[in-house]
Amino acid sequence: MFVAKDYSDIPAWVVAIYPIAVLILGALGFYVTYFFLIKEKHFAAIAQVIGSVTAALFLVTIGWDGTGYKRLLYAGTGTDWANGLVYPLTDFFTSPVSSTLMWLEALALIPYAFIFIKWARENKAT
Q1: Residue 51 contacts residue 29 (beta carbons within 8 Å)
Q2: pTM
Q3: φ and ψ of 41, to 5 deg
Q4: Angle between the 12-38 and 42-61 helix axes, to the nearest 10 degrees?
Q5: pLDDT number for residue 35
Q6: How far apart are alpha carbons 94 and 102 in whole angstroms?
Q7: Contact 37, 47 (CB under 8 A)
Q8: What is the rounded distance in angstroms from the CA atom of residue 111 to the CA atom of residue 126?
Q9: Each residue's pLDDT tens digit in the chain (126 positions)?
Q10: Is 88 exposed, middle or buried (0-12, 13-18, 19+ CB in 10 A)?
């Protein structure tokens, strides 16, 4: 976030390739986990998932220049960032980025909750 000053600074090919790369890497992660589960290498499957999430968290919080966490938790706009405007950390929790992250997390956790409940009921029956 906020590396480019506005949308015209981002090349069109980056915008086009990014979602394709996300889909390909996501599918690859599912395939690798599935492969480990089929081979009954449960520890490797769990390690793959945890490693992937850890790598993503590292990229978001550190970034390529060590300021990823500052950009992630910034409450202002790209223009504010470029102008050096500083916001208190507490403003992040009322920012559009925070709202977006909360909604995305809710959308991800609801299906996981149903899957977990189903899994728990199936294992309780055995």
Answers
A1: no
A2: 0.59
A3: -100, 75
A4: 160
A5: 94
A6: 11
A7: no
A8: 23
A9: 667 767 787 888 988 998 999 999 999 999 999 999 999 999 999 999 899 989 888 888 887 778 888 888 888 887 888 888 999 989 999 988 899 989 999 998 898 889 889 988 888 755
A10: exposed
Indicate the residue type of 89.
Answer: L
Q: Please state, in angstroms and rounded to a whole number, the distance separating the CA atoms of residues 25 and 111.
A: 21
Tokens 């790369």 correspond to 21
Tell me the C-alpha distance between 90 and 36, whole Å. 42
- Evaluate whether 73 touches 89 at the Cβ level (below 8 Å): yes
**Which amino acid would we find at residue 3?**
V
Q: Are 36 and 59 in contact (CB under 8 A)?
A: no
C-alpha triplet 76, 80, 86: angle, nearest 5°: 70
